[in-house]
Amino acid sequence: MITLRGFGKDYGDFCAVESIDLQIDAGEVFGFIGPNGAGKSTTIRFLATLLRATRGSGTVAGCDVMGDPVGVRQAVGYMPDNFGVYDGMRVWEFLDFFAVAYRIGRTERKQIIDNVLELLDLTHKRSDFVNGLSRGMKQRLCLAKTLVHDPPVLILDEPASGLDPRARVEVKALLKELRKMGKTILISSHILTELADCCTSIGIIERGQLLMHGPIDSVYRQIRRNRLVEIQFVSGEEAGMSILRSTDTLRSLEVLPGTSDTKRVVAEMETDDEGLAVLMETLIAAGVRMKSFNDRDPTLEDVFMTVTKGLVS
Ligand SMILES: Nc1ncnc2c1ncn2[C@@H]1O[C@H](COP(=O)(O)OP(=O)(O)OP(=O)(O)O)[C@@H](O)[C@H]1O
């Protein structure tokens, strides 16, 4: 549904995106993850036909982004990261405005507006002024406007930014609903936990380079080469830390906040089950007492940290 072939963008002398190759299949919810300034919005704005590529090309729903921008706009519902609303406009008028822009007929428009208001749980706000809505409501309204022309592809730039926890949960639930409706969704975020449980695939971008992408399970499997072991020391933590530091398979060591009588650390080890068993034996033989030695499943945050440290390619 979405492809990029060698897409790159320079702003003057500054290279914001180097060269991205990407394919997102129909029905995927693709999480585009990266820190501020990584190049997410630049890539998204290109796919939404709002920005010209310096290099490369892309397609959305089979339409060439640069060759057939009108075809792309018909296929895409785009939600920018900073969206404005118009003063003195009511909720239904805002949606009607976009429906007219998509040349949807008057009778059809009314039904469509009713449907998207209901889907986004905004029916009770139908006649409210847009600029009087809370941030969460405005965000939801903006999502509603991406749906008026029933596009197969949604491109959402940080749709949950600035929302309170409840509103974030609502956005996630909506994404799941939209996925069930068969939409292909590209959603960007720099908040990893936000995307962890609603994406089917992810891409990690940093400084204009797509470091890794693929189905979320396979991304987790790839970083599984590096094991993350959470250890809670009861006593002997100094000896424990020095054993960990001198283990040649240690890749990183992070001290977590613990209680006064325990010290918690996460050791990232490039090892297998045998290596972990030997480490545990060594710690015990040195008199280190532990409350737990837990080989934990990676989180999306772990994936991100591992990939951006260049430990996985
Ligand atoms: N119009 C522009 N002119 C010059 N530089 C730009 C322009 N737009 C973006 N940049 C720069 O390009 C880089 C990528 O920006 P982009 O907005 O794509 O990042 P992002 O990953 O979306 O970050 P954020 O999460 O902060 O929106 C940044 O260094 C940014 O300052």
Automatic annotation (TrEMBL):
Molecular function GO terms recorded: ATP binding; ATP hydrolysis activity
Taxonomic lineage from the root: Bacteria, Pseudomonadati, Planctomycetota, Planctomycetia, Pirellulales
Domain ABC transporter positions: 2-232
SMART domains with a match to the protein in the record: AAA
PROSITE patterns, alphabetized: ABC_TRANSPORTER_2
Alphabetized UniProt keyword annotations: ATP-binding, Nucleotide-binding, Transport
Similarity remark: Belongs to the ABC transporter superfamily.
Name listed for the protein in its UniProt record: Putative ABC transporter ATP-binding protein YbhF
Top-level division of the source organism's lineage: Bacteria
Organism from which the protein derives: Rubripirellula reticaptiva
